[in-house]
Write a structure and sequence with these properties.
The complex is a heterodimer of chains A (about 425) and B (about 300). In chain A, a hairpin with a 2-residue loop joins strand 4 and strand 5. In chain A, the strands form three sheets. Chain A has an eight-stranded mixed β-sheet, sandwiched between helices. Chain A has a four-stranded antiparallel β-sheet with strand order 10-11-14-13. A two-stranded parallel ribbon of chain A has the order 1-12. With about 425 residues, chain A is of the alpha/beta class. Chain A is about 40% helix and about 15% strand. By secondary structure, chain B is an alpha+beta fold. Chain B has twelve helices and 14 strands. In chain B, strands 9, 10, 11, 12, 13 and 14 form a six-stranded antiparallel β-sheet that branches. A four-stranded parallel β-sheet of chain B has the order 2-1-3-4, with helices on both faces. A four-stranded antiparallel β-sheet of chain B has the order 5-8-6-7. The longest helix of chain B has 17 residues. Chain B is globular. Classes of the chains: A alpha/beta (about 425), B alpha+beta (about 300). The interface between A and B is large, with 45 and 47 residues.
Chain lengths: ~425, ~300
């Protein structure tokens, strides 16, 4: 497109230098719309920010002060690439609540479990390798997989989570096609965005199927302790030490600002994870790790999780009640824990196309397309109940009902059919409510 | 001199506005001016009272920032501000009204029709869309009758794409403008100043590998810009003259950006008028200033001082 006589400018002198994988990292119209979500006039049901207003902040301030006064020279120094040994010991105790028996040496502390996701993908994925993931899947994981040029193949879920027979047939088909499947990515508890939990009965089935096909399981479990009514189900890691890499996080059970998560992996994998992590960040933050150690040592952290559960249950009830009252033409699951309700819109609506109308009506959600790699998902939207108060949730759903009605009218006038769009980032940044 | 930049707001273009605000603030601070950035919220009027001597630069895009509402508020509070006054802003904001006004001075603009969603419901969408295609042919551009940053805009090449483009457009507003797509050289002309003192900056030519949509505008790479545009001397004069005519005829003040396409006959066809043009890293007015050999900070300072006078 350049002129032979005079070159123009593309405003980015390095445009031709980017790696191919960077070209998919683009600002999108949809992402720009989310910039109003943090304004108080807008009820955001979009982001996944935990409700940390419920934390004992004064107590935490005191702990932080003591930490710096008493252990400042350690907390503010570099630390081990694998993570603080004391914290790794405590992490094994946290995981024991979900039936996992692990040694502190098995644990690699990371900067949020998001970094663990990146590390696992980095050490396993060559461009074009296949990752099998639930349909829909956590958008942050899809971003990592895309960045490493993986090919994601989705497998359906139902009310009991990932469907084992579909997983089996997908893996069989991919093998027949000569594709290299590296791992199954799954969020078994209170799925993001699906809200469902993989049933107890299916867990060993999924483990067996993956074992039979020689496929590793990446079990991502940020919400496992946030069930409203029942005890946590045993993690798949408790059923297979060699076949599962388990990811955990303090972001939802304590606070995401510390950015502390972890991976538990078979011995050889773990060694590579540590080396890859050191190459990326040298070591996780010592200050954050020691702050969490202090919290686990001195605060009633299990009591705090119980409080979170009660708060989130109240918000879930507010959302479900409001959906029943205001948008009965949609359908949804009722999550038994976690942060999200996955809503199927009335026939003919496209959640991505409807979003500008929602922003005008001062309510935000995430369009279902964000949770698929293949452009599908437009029939659904994800609503988060973790951050807004129950009153705001009810108001948000009431506004959403008006948006749905108006969009239904527009669609009925034009009788349009949805066609999926491109692969831009259609998701709010993590600091949006 | 104190400058208060208003950026943010609640429109679909909040993100662009915030970025524009930061860039302008940085340039003005480098010129030694005292600059603060303020969102439009309940703290605005107290802030305006507190800084009664400040010159306000409203950098809000989209409704309330460009439709004359915010300008009316600034007039109510007796604030000195940069840009077009409320009455003229109201006219410029409604694309069809603005086209009618500058069309009287012989400025060419593509054939268009502006229709509300309700009309499609009342008389039947298929028939209206058929009539539009019969009248204007294809390709067509469907865009919200109000708004900017190419939000809700679709270039429609096939008849069957039209319904979806309409739904997309109506998600941004209740009235759509459907316009004949003109083939030619896409040019943006920024104008600085007011009335007879207004001057056109170097025209910027936009060469895009597809529609000049949000993705192309805010992700560097897909668009190649030429400043000044690769036009003949006569062509350059024609686009500057068209831009100045629009700017003056609509009574715009201090700065504006007039988007146009120079058609196969060399006639500038005006597409859009922006009274609060984007001033981000990738925006066209800053490119025009810098490409024309001007110092961007000096241009912004001139704008502010003119508004303060």
């Amino acid at each position: 497109m350049s002129s032979p006589d005079r070159p123009g400018t593309r405003l980015d002198p390095w445009f031709d230098s980017y790696a191919a994988r960077a070209h998919a990292m683009r600002a999108s119209e949809i992402r720009a719309l989310f910039s109003v979500a943090n304004r108080p006039e807008v009820v955001s049901l979009a982001g996944g920010m935990p409700y940390i207003g419920g934390l004992p902040l004064e107590e935490l301030a005191e702990m932080t002060k003591r930490l710096v006064m008493e252990q400042g020279e350690v907390a503010l120094q570099y630390g081990s690439g694998q993570g603080d040994e004391g914290l790794r010991e405590q992490i094994t105790q946290v995981m024991a609540l979900e039936g996992i028996s692990a040694h502190p040496d098995d644990v690699v502390v990371t900067t949020g479990s998001q970094q663990a996701l990146d590390l696992v993908t980095k050490i396993f994925i060559d461009p074009g390798d296949v990752i099998v993931a639930e349909a829909p899947s956590y958008v942050g994981a899809l971003g990592v997989f895309r960045a490493h040029e993986a090919d994601v193949v989705h497998v359906p879920m139902d009310a009991e989570g990932l469907v084992p027979s579909e997983l089996d047939s997908t893996l069989t088909r991919l093998k027949a096609e000569g594709r290299r499947v590296k791992f199954l990515y799954t969020v078994p508890n209170f799925h993001n965005p699906g809200g469902v939990t993989l049933s107890l009965e299916r867990r060993p089935q999924v483990v067996e199927i993956c074992q039979r096909h020689g496929v590793l399981i990446l079990e991502d479990n940020p919400y496992g302790l946030l069930g409203f009514d029942s005890d946590p189900l045993p993690a798949m890691r408790s059923m297979s030490e060699e076949g599962v890499i388990y990811l955990g996080s303090f972001s939802k059970t304590f606070a995401p600002g510390y950015r502390v998560g972890w991976a538990v992996a078979p011995h050889a994998v773990r060694e590579k994870l540590v080396l890859a992590s050191e190459a990326a960040i040298l070591c996780p933050s010592n200050a954050s790790q020691l702050a969490i150690r202090t919290y686990l040592d001195h605060a009633d952290w299990q009591g705090q999780i119980k409080k979170f559960r009660e708060q989130y249950r109240e918000r879930r009830d507010a959302m479900i009640g409001a959906l029943e009252e205001h948008i009965p033409s949609a359908s949804w699951n009722v999550p038994e824990g976690g942060f999200y309700v996955w809503v199927k819109l009335p026939e003919g609506l496209d959640s991505k196309s409807m979003l500008p109308r929602a922003i005008t009506a001062r309510v935000a959600y995430v369009a279902g397309t964000a949770f698929y790699m293949d452009g599908s998902g437009s029939t659904h939207m994800r609503l988060s109940y973790c951050y807004p108060t129950p009153e705001r949730i009810r108001e948000g759903v009431r506004r959403l009902a008006g948006v749905v009605d108006a969009e239904l009218e527009a669609v009925s006038i034009f009788g349009q059919e949805y066609r999926p769009g491109g692969g831009t980032v259609d998701f709010p940044s993590p600091d949006l409510a | 001199m104190d400058v208060m930049i208003l950026a943010g707001g609640l429109s679909h273009e909040r993100d662009v506005s915030v970025r524009s605000g930061r860039r302008v603030a940085e340039e003005l601070r480098d010129r030694g001016l005292k600059v603060s950035i303020h969102d439009v919220d309940t703290s605005l009027i107290p802030a305006l009272r507190e800084k009664a001597d400040a010159v306000v630069w409203p950098l809000l895009h989209g409704a309330s920032g460009e439709d004359g509402s915010l300008q009316a508020l600034l007039e109510l509070t007796g604030t000195r501000y940069v840009g077009t006054r409320s009455k003229e802003a109201r006219v410029a904001w409604v694309k069809s009204v603005a086209k009618a006004v500058y069309g009287r001075d012989g400025v060419a603009t593509p054939d268009y029709v502006t229709l509300p969603q309700s009309l499609f419901r009342e008389v039947g969408a298929e028939q209206v869309l058929d009539a539009i295609v019969a009248r204007f042919g294809l390709p067509l551009v469907v865009k919200p009758a109000r708004g900017g940053s190419a939000l809700g805009v679709t270039l429609v090449k096939e008849r069957e794409e039209l319904a979806r483009a309409m739904v997309h457009c109506f998600a941004y507003g209740d009235t759509a403008m459907i316009e004949s797509a003109i083939d030619g050289t896409e040019v943006a002309v920024s104008v600085i100043g007011t009335g007879e003192d207004a001057v056109a900056l170097a025209p910027v030519e936009i060469v895009c590998d597809g529609p000049y949509d949000y993705d192309a505008r805010y992700n560097p790479g897909r668009v190649e810009y030429f400043t000044p545009a690769r036009l003949s001397a006569e062509g350059t004069r024609a686009v500057a003259e068209a831009a100045l005519t629009v700017h003056r005829r609509l009574g715009l003040r201090d700065l504006s950006r007039i988007d146009m396409i120079v058609d196969a006959d060399g006639v500038p066809q005006v597409l859009d008028v922006n009274i609060a043009p984007g001033l981000t890293e990738t925006s066209l007015l800053p490119q025009a200033a810098v490409g024309g050999g001007e110092d961007l900070g000096a241009v912004y300072e001139r704008i502010v001082r003119a508004a303060a006078a």
